[in-house]
Amino acid sequence: MSNTSYYFILWILCIVPLIHSLTPKSPIQCNKTICTLENSYGTWNDRKTCYALNVTYPTTEQQLRLAVSHVVQNNLKAKIVTKFSHTIPTLSCPLQNNHAFFISTEKYDSGIEIDAENLAVTVDSGVKLRELIDEVEKNGFSLVNAPYWEGVTIGGVISTGAHGSSWWGKGGAFHEQVLEISVVVPASKSEGYAKILRLDSHHPLFNAAKVSLGVLGAISKVKLSLEHRFKRSITFNFTDDNDIENVYMDHANKYEFADITWYPSRHTAVYRYDFRAPLNASGDGVFDFIGFQANSILVPESVRGAGNSKGKCLTASASLAFKKLTANGLKNNGQIFTGYPVIGYQGKMQTSGSCLYSSRIDTSCAWDPRIKGLFFYESSAIFPASKFGDFIKDVKNLRDINPQNFCGIDNYNGILIRYIKASEAYLGPSEDSIVIDFNYYRANDQFTPRLNQDVWEELEQMAFFKYGAKPHWAKNRNLAFLNVRQKYPKFNAFIDAKNQMDPQNVFSGDWSDEILYGKELVKFDGCALEGMCICSEDRHCSPQKGYLCTHGLVYKEARVCRLLSTSVNTDSL
Protein backbone atom coordinates (compact mmCIF):
# COMPACT_ATOMS: atom_id res chain seq x y z
CA MET A 1 0.00 0.00 0.00
CA SER A 2 1.33 3.46 -0.90
CA ASN A 3 1.92 6.08 1.82
CA THR A 4 -0.81 8.23 0.28
CA SER A 5 -3.32 5.36 0.50
CA TYR A 6 -2.27 4.72 4.10
CA TYR A 7 -2.88 8.32 5.17
CA PHE A 8 -6.17 8.43 3.24
CA ILE A 9 -7.39 5.43 5.25
CA LEU A 10 -6.25 7.02 8.52
CA TRP A 11 -8.17 10.17 7.57
CA ILE A 12 -11.34 8.16 6.96
CA LEU A 13 -10.89 6.27 10.24
CA CYS A 14 -10.68 9.58 12.09
CA ILE A 15 -13.86 10.84 10.45
CA VAL A 16 -16.03 7.70 10.77
CA PRO A 17 -16.52 7.82 14.58
CA LEU A 18 -17.90 11.37 14.30
CA ILE A 19 -20.53 10.46 11.74
CA HIS A 20 -24.18 11.45 12.00
CA SER A 21 -26.45 12.31 9.11
CA LEU A 22 -28.78 14.71 7.38
CA THR A 23 -32.02 12.74 7.25
CA PRO A 24 -33.43 12.55 3.71
CA LYS A 25 -35.97 15.22 2.81
CA SER A 26 -39.47 14.42 1.58
CA PRO A 27 -39.48 13.63 -2.15
CA ILE A 28 -42.65 15.71 -2.65
CA GLN A 29 -42.57 19.50 -2.33
CA CYS A 30 -45.68 21.62 -2.86
CA ASN A 31 -46.44 25.31 -3.24
CA LYS A 32 -49.80 26.98 -3.74
CA THR A 33 -50.16 25.86 -7.36
CA ILE A 34 -48.21 22.66 -7.93
CA CYS A 35 -46.40 19.69 -6.35
CA THR A 36 -43.08 18.37 -7.60
CA LEU A 37 -41.49 14.97 -7.09
CA GLU A 38 -37.78 14.21 -6.91
CA ASN A 39 -36.02 10.91 -6.46
CA SER A 40 -33.54 10.46 -3.62
CA TYR A 41 -30.70 11.60 -5.90
CA GLY A 42 -32.42 14.89 -6.72
CA THR A 43 -32.39 14.37 -10.50
CA TRP A 44 -34.27 12.08 -12.88
CA ASN A 45 -32.69 10.47 -15.93
CA ASP A 46 -34.07 13.14 -18.25
CA ARG A 47 -33.38 15.98 -15.76
CA LYS A 48 -36.97 17.19 -16.22
CA THR A 49 -39.28 18.29 -13.43
CA CYS A 50 -41.94 15.77 -12.41
CA TYR A 51 -45.09 17.52 -11.24
CA ALA A 52 -48.75 17.05 -10.33
CA LEU A 53 -51.62 19.25 -9.25
CA ASN A 54 -51.75 17.98 -5.68
CA VAL A 55 -50.92 15.15 -3.30
CA THR A 56 -52.93 13.18 -0.78
CA TYR A 57 -51.68 11.05 2.12
CA PRO A 58 -54.12 8.21 2.92
CA THR A 59 -53.63 6.40 6.23
CA THR A 60 -55.96 3.43 5.70
CA GLU A 61 -56.97 1.11 2.89
CA GLN A 62 -60.38 2.79 2.68
CA GLN A 63 -58.77 6.23 2.34
CA LEU A 64 -56.54 4.84 -0.40
CA ARG A 65 -59.62 3.54 -2.21
CA LEU A 66 -61.28 6.94 -1.88
CA ALA A 67 -58.18 8.67 -3.26
CA VAL A 68 -58.23 6.45 -6.35
CA SER A 69 -62.00 6.99 -6.63
CA HIS A 70 -61.50 10.77 -6.63
CA VAL A 71 -58.90 10.51 -9.40
CA VAL A 72 -61.10 8.30 -11.58
CA GLN A 73 -64.27 10.32 -11.00
CA ASN A 74 -62.49 13.54 -12.01
CA ASN A 75 -60.72 12.08 -15.07
CA LEU A 76 -57.28 12.64 -13.57
CA LYS A 77 -54.09 10.61 -13.83
CA ALA A 78 -52.23 9.39 -10.74
CA LYS A 79 -49.04 7.81 -9.50
CA ILE A 80 -48.32 6.15 -6.19
CA VAL A 81 -45.33 7.72 -4.44
CA THR A 82 -43.44 6.24 -1.49
CA LYS A 83 -41.66 7.92 1.38
CA PHE A 84 -38.24 7.30 -0.17
CA SER A 85 -38.73 7.67 -3.96
CA HIS A 86 -35.56 5.66 -4.55
CA THR A 87 -36.00 4.83 -8.24
CA ILE A 88 -33.71 6.24 -10.91
CA PRO A 89 -36.08 6.20 -13.94
CA THR A 90 -39.32 8.17 -13.68
CA LEU A 91 -41.55 5.20 -12.81
CA SER A 92 -43.41 7.23 -10.21
CA CYS A 93 -44.01 10.24 -12.46
CA PRO A 94 -47.56 10.53 -13.90
CA LEU A 95 -48.46 11.79 -17.35
CA GLN A 96 -47.30 15.40 -17.50
CA ASN A 97 -50.59 16.82 -18.79
CA ASN A 98 -51.65 19.19 -15.98
CA HIS A 99 -54.28 16.69 -14.85
CA ALA A 100 -52.26 14.45 -12.55
CA PHE A 101 -52.32 13.62 -8.87
CA PHE A 102 -49.79 12.12 -6.43
CA ILE A 103 -51.00 9.54 -3.91
CA SER A 104 -48.34 9.07 -1.24
CA THR A 105 -48.16 5.97 0.97
CA GLU A 106 -45.85 7.73 3.45
CA LYS A 107 -48.54 7.71 6.17
CA TYR A 108 -50.14 4.41 5.16
CA ASP A 109 -47.57 2.47 7.13
CA SER A 110 -49.01 1.21 10.42
CA GLY A 111 -50.36 -2.23 9.59
CA ILE A 112 -48.14 -5.24 10.31
CA GLU A 113 -50.15 -8.39 11.13
CA ILE A 114 -48.22 -11.59 11.84
CA ASP A 115 -49.88 -14.98 11.31
CA ALA A 116 -47.58 -17.17 13.40
CA GLU A 117 -49.45 -20.39 12.67
CA ASN A 118 -49.13 -20.02 8.90
CA LEU A 119 -45.72 -18.31 8.90
CA ALA A 120 -46.95 -15.18 7.15
CA VAL A 121 -47.20 -11.44 7.67
CA THR A 122 -49.59 -8.94 6.06
CA VAL A 123 -48.44 -5.32 5.80
CA ASP A 124 -49.66 -1.98 4.50
CA SER A 125 -47.84 -1.02 1.31
CA GLY A 126 -46.24 2.04 2.91
CA VAL A 127 -44.55 0.06 5.67
CA LYS A 128 -40.80 0.62 5.60
CA LEU A 129 -38.60 -2.44 5.12
CA ARG A 130 -36.60 -1.85 8.31
CA GLU A 131 -39.77 -1.52 10.42
CA LEU A 132 -41.11 -4.77 9.01
CA ILE A 133 -37.86 -6.64 9.62
CA ASP A 134 -37.60 -5.40 13.20
CA GLU A 135 -41.22 -6.34 13.96
CA VAL A 136 -41.04 -9.89 12.63
CA GLU A 137 -37.65 -10.51 14.26
CA LYS A 138 -39.02 -9.27 17.59
CA ASN A 139 -41.72 -11.92 17.30
CA GLY A 140 -39.32 -14.74 16.49
CA PHE A 141 -39.46 -14.77 12.69
CA SER A 142 -37.33 -13.70 9.72
CA LEU A 143 -37.83 -12.57 6.16
CA VAL A 144 -35.67 -14.91 4.12
CA ASN A 145 -34.49 -12.39 1.54
CA ALA A 146 -34.69 -8.65 1.04
CA PRO A 147 -32.87 -5.88 -0.82
CA TYR A 148 -29.48 -4.83 0.57
CA TRP A 149 -30.71 -1.21 0.92
CA GLU A 150 -33.42 -0.71 3.54
CA GLY A 151 -34.58 2.74 2.43
CA VAL A 152 -37.59 1.28 0.62
CA THR A 153 -41.24 0.50 1.32
CA ILE A 154 -42.89 -2.87 0.79
CA GLY A 155 -45.09 -1.59 -2.02
CA GLY A 156 -42.09 -0.04 -3.73
CA VAL A 157 -39.98 -3.18 -3.43
CA ILE A 158 -42.45 -5.50 -5.09
CA SER A 159 -43.37 -2.94 -7.76
CA THR A 160 -39.82 -2.88 -9.13
CA GLY A 161 -38.46 -6.42 -8.72
CA ALA A 162 -35.98 -5.43 -5.99
CA HIS A 163 -33.90 -8.29 -4.61
CA GLY A 164 -31.16 -9.64 -2.41
CA SER A 165 -29.04 -12.57 -3.51
CA SER A 166 -29.71 -16.32 -3.48
CA TRP A 167 -30.27 -19.32 -5.71
CA TRP A 168 -31.56 -21.34 -2.78
CA GLY A 169 -35.22 -21.87 -1.88
CA LYS A 170 -37.40 -19.20 -3.52
CA GLY A 171 -34.32 -17.21 -4.53
CA GLY A 172 -33.14 -13.67 -3.92
CA ALA A 173 -36.07 -11.67 -5.36
CA PHE A 174 -38.33 -10.15 -2.72
CA HIS A 175 -41.49 -10.64 -4.79
CA GLU A 176 -40.98 -14.41 -4.61
CA GLN A 177 -41.89 -14.18 -0.91
CA VAL A 178 -45.31 -12.70 -1.80
CA LEU A 179 -48.37 -14.86 -1.00
CA GLU A 180 -51.16 -12.33 -1.62
CA ILE A 181 -51.49 -8.77 -2.92
CA SER A 182 -54.36 -6.32 -2.55
CA VAL A 183 -54.58 -3.68 -5.28
CA VAL A 184 -56.93 -0.70 -5.59
CA VAL A 185 -57.96 -0.31 -9.23
CA PRO A 186 -60.34 1.97 -11.17
CA ALA A 187 -63.95 0.82 -11.31
CA SER A 188 -67.35 1.80 -12.65
CA LYS A 189 -69.62 4.44 -11.20
CA SER A 190 -71.82 1.74 -9.65
CA GLU A 191 -68.75 0.34 -7.88
CA GLY A 192 -67.79 3.74 -6.50
CA TYR A 193 -65.11 4.46 -9.17
CA ALA A 194 -62.55 2.28 -7.34
CA LYS A 195 -62.45 -1.25 -5.96
CA ILE A 196 -60.04 -3.54 -4.14
CA LEU A 197 -58.80 -6.72 -5.80
CA ARG A 198 -57.49 -9.47 -3.49
CA LEU A 199 -55.03 -11.54 -5.50
CA ASP A 200 -53.55 -14.82 -4.30
CA SER A 201 -51.32 -17.28 -6.15
CA HIS A 202 -54.34 -18.91 -7.83
CA HIS A 203 -55.68 -15.65 -9.26
CA PRO A 204 -54.93 -15.10 -12.98
CA LEU A 205 -53.70 -11.55 -12.28
CA PHE A 206 -51.34 -12.50 -9.47
CA ASN A 207 -48.21 -12.95 -11.58
CA ALA A 208 -48.75 -9.57 -13.21
CA ALA A 209 -49.12 -7.83 -9.85
CA LYS A 210 -45.96 -9.39 -8.33
CA VAL A 211 -43.83 -6.95 -10.35
CA SER A 212 -46.28 -4.23 -11.34
CA LEU A 213 -44.15 -1.15 -12.13
CA GLY A 214 -46.91 0.86 -10.44
CA VAL A 215 -49.02 0.82 -13.62
CA LEU A 216 -51.72 -1.68 -12.59
CA GLY A 217 -53.19 0.21 -9.66
CA ALA A 218 -52.40 1.19 -6.08
CA ILE A 219 -50.93 -1.64 -4.00
CA SER A 220 -52.73 -1.66 -0.68
CA LYS A 221 -51.60 -4.68 1.31
CA VAL A 222 -49.02 -7.42 0.81
CA LYS A 223 -48.90 -10.83 2.46
CA LEU A 224 -45.39 -12.30 2.72
CA SER A 225 -44.01 -15.67 3.78
CA LEU A 226 -41.86 -15.95 6.92
CA GLU A 227 -39.49 -18.44 8.46
CA HIS A 228 -38.60 -18.97 12.08
CA ARG A 229 -35.84 -16.60 13.14
CA PHE A 230 -32.34 -17.68 12.14
CA LYS A 231 -28.75 -16.51 12.19
CA ARG A 232 -26.19 -16.05 9.44
CA SER A 233 -22.43 -16.35 9.29
CA ILE A 234 -20.56 -14.04 6.88
CA THR A 235 -16.93 -14.00 5.77
CA PHE A 236 -15.55 -11.84 2.96
CA ASN A 237 -12.64 -13.33 1.04
CA PHE A 238 -10.61 -10.62 -0.72
CA THR A 239 -8.64 -12.41 -3.43
CA ASP A 240 -7.65 -12.21 -7.12
CA ASP A 241 -10.20 -12.16 -9.92
CA ASN A 242 -8.60 -14.83 -12.09
CA ASP A 243 -11.40 -17.39 -11.92
CA ILE A 244 -14.70 -15.51 -11.58
CA GLU A 245 -16.03 -16.74 -14.92
CA ASN A 246 -15.46 -20.35 -13.90
CA VAL A 247 -16.66 -20.37 -10.29
CA TYR A 248 -19.64 -17.99 -10.13
CA MET A 249 -22.20 -20.82 -10.35
CA ASP A 250 -20.46 -23.07 -7.83
CA HIS A 251 -20.21 -20.13 -5.45
CA ALA A 252 -23.99 -19.57 -5.54
CA ASN A 253 -24.72 -23.26 -5.13
CA LYS A 254 -22.41 -23.58 -2.12
CA TYR A 255 -23.52 -20.52 -0.11
CA GLU A 256 -27.18 -19.64 0.42
CA PHE A 257 -26.65 -15.85 0.40
CA ALA A 258 -23.60 -15.69 -1.88
CA ASP A 259 -22.49 -12.68 -3.83
CA ILE A 260 -19.27 -11.43 -5.45
CA THR A 261 -17.94 -7.89 -5.64
CA TRP A 262 -15.47 -7.41 -8.48
CA TYR A 263 -12.98 -4.54 -8.66
CA PRO A 264 -11.64 -4.88 -12.22
CA SER A 265 -8.94 -2.20 -12.07
CA ARG A 266 -7.57 -3.73 -8.85
CA HIS A 267 -7.77 -7.29 -10.27
CA THR A 268 -9.63 -8.17 -7.07
CA ALA A 269 -12.73 -10.22 -6.35
CA VAL A 270 -14.45 -10.32 -2.96
CA TYR A 271 -16.34 -13.55 -2.42
CA ARG A 272 -19.10 -13.49 0.17
CA TYR A 273 -19.23 -16.75 2.14
CA ASP A 274 -22.67 -16.37 3.68
CA PHE A 275 -24.78 -19.17 5.13
CA ARG A 276 -27.10 -19.99 8.01
CA ALA A 277 -25.62 -20.57 11.45
CA PRO A 278 -27.20 -22.42 14.38
CA LEU A 279 -29.50 -20.21 16.42
CA ASN A 280 -27.37 -20.87 19.51
CA ALA A 281 -24.15 -19.87 17.72
CA SER A 282 -22.29 -17.13 19.55
CA GLY A 283 -22.54 -13.68 18.02
CA ASP A 284 -24.79 -10.66 17.69
CA GLY A 285 -23.22 -9.21 14.58
CA VAL A 286 -24.47 -6.43 12.31
CA PHE A 287 -23.82 -5.74 8.65
CA ASP A 288 -23.72 -1.94 8.45
CA PHE A 289 -22.56 -1.70 4.83
CA ILE A 290 -19.99 1.07 4.38
CA GLY A 291 -21.71 2.52 1.32
CA PHE A 292 -24.93 3.01 3.30
CA GLN A 293 -23.37 4.50 6.43
CA ALA A 294 -23.60 8.20 7.16
CA ASN A 295 -20.61 9.91 5.58
CA SER A 296 -18.84 13.11 6.45
CA ILE A 297 -19.63 15.38 3.53
CA LEU A 298 -15.88 15.53 2.84
CA VAL A 299 -15.69 11.83 1.91
CA PRO A 300 -18.07 11.81 -1.10
CA GLU A 301 -16.64 15.16 -2.21
CA SER A 302 -13.14 13.68 -2.21
CA VAL A 303 -14.24 10.66 -4.25
CA ARG A 304 -15.96 12.86 -6.80
CA GLY A 305 -13.09 15.31 -6.90
CA ALA A 306 -10.38 12.83 -7.96
CA GLY A 307 -10.45 14.16 -11.49
CA ASN A 308 -8.07 12.11 -13.65
CA SER A 309 -7.38 8.40 -14.05
CA LYS A 310 -4.36 8.48 -11.76
CA GLY A 311 -6.33 10.23 -9.02
CA LYS A 312 -9.26 7.86 -9.37
CA CYS A 313 -6.96 4.82 -9.19
CA LEU A 314 -5.37 6.20 -6.03
CA THR A 315 -8.71 6.62 -4.29
CA ALA A 316 -9.90 3.24 -5.64
CA SER A 317 -6.90 1.53 -4.01
CA ALA A 318 -7.41 3.37 -0.74
CA SER A 319 -11.14 2.63 -0.73
CA LEU A 320 -10.58 -1.08 -1.33
CA ALA A 321 -7.96 -1.28 1.41
CA PHE A 322 -10.36 0.43 3.82
CA LYS A 323 -13.17 -1.98 2.94
CA LYS A 324 -10.89 -4.92 3.60
CA LEU A 325 -9.75 -3.43 6.92
CA THR A 326 -13.34 -2.87 8.08
CA ALA A 327 -14.90 -5.99 6.47
CA ASN A 328 -17.11 -3.73 4.34
CA GLY A 329 -19.12 -2.72 7.40
CA LEU A 330 -19.50 -6.04 9.24
CA LYS A 331 -19.38 -5.55 13.01
CA ASN A 332 -18.96 -8.26 15.61
CA ASN A 333 -21.53 -7.78 18.38
CA GLY A 334 -22.74 -4.63 16.64
CA GLN A 335 -19.77 -2.41 17.51
CA ILE A 336 -16.58 -2.92 15.49
CA PHE A 337 -15.09 -5.59 13.28
CA THR A 338 -12.74 -7.88 15.22
CA GLY A 339 -12.49 -10.89 12.92
CA TYR A 340 -14.27 -13.47 10.75
CA PRO A 341 -16.75 -15.03 10.72
CA VAL A 342 -19.29 -12.42 11.79
CA ILE A 343 -22.42 -14.16 13.10
CA GLY A 344 -25.70 -12.39 13.71
CA TYR A 345 -29.45 -12.58 13.36
CA GLN A 346 -30.90 -12.42 9.85
CA GLY A 347 -32.63 -9.10 10.54
CA LYS A 348 -29.29 -7.41 11.22
CA MET A 349 -27.30 -9.07 8.45
CA GLN A 350 -29.48 -8.86 5.34
CA THR A 351 -30.17 -5.17 4.83
CA SER A 352 -28.72 -1.87 5.97
CA GLY A 353 -29.00 1.91 5.63
CA SER A 354 -27.85 3.62 8.80
CA CYS A 355 -27.37 6.93 6.98
CA LEU A 356 -31.16 7.32 7.00
CA TYR A 357 -31.50 7.81 10.73
CA SER A 358 -28.93 10.23 12.16
CA SER A 359 -29.39 13.97 12.31
CA ARG A 360 -26.21 16.07 12.41
CA ILE A 361 -25.95 18.64 9.65
CA ASP A 362 -22.30 17.88 8.72
CA THR A 363 -23.02 14.38 7.41
CA SER A 364 -25.47 12.61 5.12
CA CYS A 365 -26.10 9.65 2.87
CA ALA A 366 -23.30 9.94 0.32
CA TRP A 367 -25.67 10.75 -2.58
CA ASP A 368 -27.76 13.37 -0.78
CA PRO A 369 -28.39 16.13 -3.36
CA ARG A 370 -28.11 18.83 -0.67
CA ILE A 371 -24.33 18.34 -0.50
CA LYS A 372 -21.69 18.19 -3.22
CA GLY A 373 -21.64 14.43 -2.86
CA LEU A 374 -21.87 11.42 -5.10
CA PHE A 375 -23.87 12.03 -8.26
CA PHE A 376 -23.84 8.90 -10.35
CA TYR A 377 -25.53 6.54 -12.75
CA GLU A 378 -26.38 3.04 -11.65
CA SER A 379 -26.59 0.34 -14.27
CA SER A 380 -28.11 -3.00 -13.31
CA ALA A 381 -28.33 -5.89 -15.78
CA ILE A 382 -29.94 -9.32 -15.31
CA PHE A 383 -28.18 -12.07 -17.30
CA PRO A 384 -29.21 -15.63 -18.05
CA ALA A 385 -26.78 -17.59 -15.88
CA SER A 386 -25.42 -19.57 -18.83
CA LYS A 387 -24.22 -16.40 -20.63
CA PHE A 388 -22.58 -14.65 -17.72
CA GLY A 389 -19.15 -16.32 -17.93
CA ASP A 390 -18.64 -15.05 -21.49
CA PHE A 391 -19.66 -11.54 -20.39
CA ILE A 392 -16.99 -11.63 -17.67
CA LYS A 393 -14.38 -12.64 -20.24
CA ASP A 394 -15.36 -9.73 -22.49
CA VAL A 395 -15.16 -7.28 -19.60
CA LYS A 396 -11.70 -8.59 -18.71
CA ASN A 397 -10.61 -8.09 -22.32
CA LEU A 398 -11.90 -4.52 -22.21
CA ARG A 399 -10.22 -3.95 -18.84
CA ASP A 400 -6.89 -5.33 -20.01
CA ILE A 401 -6.61 -2.69 -22.77
CA ASN A 402 -6.03 -0.17 -19.97
CA PRO A 403 -6.90 -1.20 -16.40
CA GLN A 404 -6.82 2.44 -15.24
CA ASN A 405 -9.98 3.06 -17.25
CA PHE A 406 -11.92 0.98 -14.70
CA CYS A 407 -10.80 2.89 -11.61
CA GLY A 408 -13.93 5.05 -11.88
CA ILE A 409 -16.36 2.27 -10.95
CA ASP A 410 -13.95 0.85 -8.38
CA ASN A 411 -14.18 4.20 -6.58
CA TYR A 412 -17.80 3.31 -5.89
CA ASN A 413 -18.39 -0.40 -5.35
CA GLY A 414 -16.90 -2.11 -8.37
CA ILE A 415 -19.28 -4.57 -10.02
CA LEU A 416 -21.63 -6.26 -7.56
CA ILE A 417 -22.69 -9.74 -8.70
CA ARG A 418 -25.85 -11.28 -7.20
CA TYR A 419 -28.20 -14.18 -7.83
CA ILE A 420 -31.95 -14.49 -8.41
CA LYS A 421 -34.03 -17.48 -9.48
CA ALA A 422 -36.46 -17.98 -12.32
CA SER A 423 -39.83 -16.39 -11.59
CA GLU A 424 -43.45 -16.85 -12.60
CA ALA A 425 -43.89 -13.07 -12.41
CA TYR A 426 -44.57 -11.76 -15.90
CA LEU A 427 -41.85 -9.11 -15.51
CA GLY A 428 -39.43 -11.31 -13.57
CA PRO A 429 -36.61 -13.39 -15.10
CA SER A 430 -37.78 -16.56 -16.81
CA GLU A 431 -34.59 -18.45 -15.88
CA ASP A 432 -32.05 -18.52 -13.06
CA SER A 433 -30.09 -15.32 -13.45
CA ILE A 434 -27.08 -13.25 -12.45
CA VAL A 435 -27.58 -9.56 -11.63
CA ILE A 436 -24.79 -7.01 -11.83
CA ASP A 437 -24.80 -3.46 -10.47
CA PHE A 438 -22.18 -0.80 -11.09
CA ASN A 439 -22.13 2.93 -10.36
CA TYR A 440 -20.21 5.54 -12.30
CA TYR A 441 -19.78 9.30 -12.40
CA ARG A 442 -22.53 11.57 -13.70
CA ALA A 443 -21.64 15.13 -14.60
CA ASN A 444 -23.47 18.03 -12.99
CA ASP A 445 -24.03 19.46 -16.45
CA GLN A 446 -25.81 17.11 -18.85
CA PHE A 447 -23.66 18.14 -21.82
CA THR A 448 -20.32 17.59 -20.09
CA PRO A 449 -18.55 14.39 -21.21
CA ARG A 450 -17.08 12.07 -18.60
CA LEU A 451 -13.66 10.53 -18.19
CA ASN A 452 -13.58 7.16 -19.99
CA GLN A 453 -17.18 7.65 -21.04
CA ASP A 454 -16.77 5.19 -23.91
CA VAL A 455 -15.78 2.38 -21.54
CA TRP A 456 -19.01 2.54 -19.54
CA GLU A 457 -21.09 2.90 -22.70
CA GLU A 458 -19.45 -0.18 -24.22
CA LEU A 459 -19.92 -2.15 -20.99
CA GLU A 460 -23.57 -1.07 -20.87
CA GLN A 461 -24.30 -1.95 -24.50
CA MET A 462 -22.38 -5.21 -24.22
CA ALA A 463 -24.60 -6.28 -21.33
CA PHE A 464 -27.98 -5.25 -22.71
CA PHE A 465 -27.53 -5.90 -26.43
CA LYS A 466 -24.76 -8.46 -27.01
CA TYR A 467 -25.82 -10.68 -24.10
CA GLY A 468 -29.47 -9.70 -24.00
CA ALA A 469 -29.48 -8.79 -20.31
CA LYS A 470 -32.72 -7.44 -18.86
CA PRO A 471 -32.70 -4.06 -17.10
CA HIS A 472 -33.57 -3.71 -13.43
CA TRP A 473 -36.84 -1.79 -13.51
CA ALA A 474 -35.86 0.79 -10.86
CA LYS A 475 -32.33 1.53 -12.12
CA ASN A 476 -30.50 2.22 -15.38
CA ARG A 477 -30.29 4.90 -18.01
CA ASN A 478 -33.00 5.07 -20.64
CA LEU A 479 -31.13 3.20 -23.38
CA ALA A 480 -31.08 0.03 -21.25
CA PHE A 481 -34.83 -0.34 -21.84
CA LEU A 482 -34.63 -0.44 -25.64
CA ASN A 483 -36.56 -3.43 -26.99
CA VAL A 484 -37.23 -4.65 -23.46
CA ARG A 485 -40.53 -6.20 -24.59
CA GLN A 486 -38.68 -8.87 -26.54
CA LYS A 487 -36.77 -9.99 -23.43
CA TYR A 488 -39.82 -11.16 -21.46
CA PRO A 489 -41.80 -14.11 -22.87
CA LYS A 490 -44.90 -13.05 -20.91
CA PHE A 491 -44.68 -9.33 -21.61
CA ASN A 492 -47.90 -9.35 -23.64
CA ALA A 493 -49.66 -11.12 -20.77
CA PHE A 494 -48.59 -8.22 -18.53
CA ILE A 495 -50.02 -5.70 -21.00
CA ASP A 496 -53.27 -7.70 -21.09
CA ALA A 497 -53.43 -7.59 -17.27
CA LYS A 498 -52.78 -3.83 -17.34
CA ASN A 499 -55.62 -3.32 -19.79
CA GLN A 500 -57.90 -5.36 -17.57
CA MET A 501 -56.96 -3.70 -14.27
CA ASP A 502 -56.54 -0.12 -15.51
CA PRO A 503 -58.37 0.20 -18.85
CA GLN A 504 -58.47 4.01 -18.55
CA ASN A 505 -54.66 4.23 -18.09
CA VAL A 506 -55.10 6.16 -14.85
CA PHE A 507 -51.74 4.94 -13.53
CA SER A 508 -49.78 5.43 -16.75
CA GLY A 509 -46.84 7.79 -17.07
CA ASP A 510 -44.85 9.20 -19.96
CA TRP A 511 -41.83 7.03 -19.23
CA SER A 512 -43.73 3.85 -18.40
CA ASP A 513 -45.64 4.21 -21.68
CA GLU A 514 -42.33 4.51 -23.53
CA ILE A 515 -41.00 1.21 -22.21
CA LEU A 516 -44.31 -0.67 -22.23
CA TYR A 517 -45.27 0.30 -25.76
CA GLY A 518 -41.86 0.53 -27.37
CA LYS A 519 -41.55 4.22 -28.15
CA GLU A 520 -38.25 5.02 -29.86
CA LEU A 521 -35.72 7.25 -28.10
CA VAL A 522 -35.62 10.76 -29.58
CA LYS A 523 -32.14 11.76 -30.65
CA PHE A 524 -30.75 15.25 -30.17
CA ASP A 525 -27.38 16.95 -29.85
CA GLY A 526 -25.54 15.41 -26.88
CA CYS A 527 -28.22 12.78 -26.20
CA ALA A 528 -25.72 9.91 -25.85
CA LEU A 529 -23.81 11.65 -23.04
CA GLU A 530 -26.53 10.72 -20.55
CA GLY A 531 -27.80 7.51 -22.10
CA MET A 532 -30.86 9.15 -23.62
CA CYS A 533 -29.84 7.58 -26.94
CA ILE A 534 -27.11 5.51 -28.56
CA CYS A 535 -24.98 7.72 -30.76
CA SER A 536 -25.10 7.30 -34.52
CA GLU A 537 -23.61 10.72 -35.36
CA ASP A 538 -20.87 12.80 -33.76
CA ARG A 539 -23.40 15.43 -32.73
CA HIS A 540 -24.99 12.92 -30.32
CA CYS A 541 -21.73 13.10 -28.35
CA SER A 542 -19.74 16.29 -27.79
CA PRO A 543 -17.65 17.05 -30.89
CA GLN A 544 -16.86 20.54 -29.64
CA LYS A 545 -15.04 18.91 -26.69
CA GLY A 546 -13.41 16.19 -28.79
CA TYR A 547 -15.86 13.36 -28.06
CA LEU A 548 -16.92 11.64 -31.28
CA CYS A 549 -19.18 8.67 -32.04
CA THR A 550 -17.22 5.52 -32.80
CA HIS A 551 -17.29 1.73 -32.36
CA GLY A 552 -16.47 -0.26 -29.24
CA LEU A 553 -13.04 -1.75 -28.62
CA VAL A 554 -14.15 -5.30 -27.73
CA TYR A 555 -17.83 -5.24 -28.63
CA LYS A 556 -17.41 -3.72 -32.07
CA GLU A 557 -21.15 -3.28 -32.60
CA ALA A 558 -21.32 -0.82 -29.71
CA ARG A 559 -21.53 2.85 -30.64
CA VAL A 560 -19.86 5.02 -28.02
CA CYS A 561 -18.66 8.56 -27.40
CA ARG A 562 -14.85 8.53 -27.20
CA LEU A 563 -12.32 11.33 -26.77
CA LEU A 564 -10.63 11.24 -30.17
CA SER A 565 -9.49 14.82 -30.66
CA THR A 566 -6.41 15.26 -28.46
CA SER A 567 -6.20 18.91 -29.44
CA VAL A 568 -9.21 19.63 -27.25
CA ASN A 569 -8.47 20.37 -23.62
CA THR A 570 -11.01 18.68 -21.36
CA ASP A 571 -11.18 18.08 -17.64
CA SER A 572 -14.24 15.86 -17.95
CA LEU A 573 -14.81 13.39 -15.16
Automatic annotation (TrEMBL):
Pathway: Cofactor biosynthesis; L-ascorbate biosynthesis. It comes from the Eukaryota. Pfam families: ALO, FAD_binding_4, GULLO2-like_3rd. One of its GO terms (cellular component) is membrane. GO terms for biological process: L-ascorbic acid biosynthetic process. Residues 1-21 form the signal peptide. This is L-gulonolactone oxidase. It comes from Pisum sativum (Garden pea).
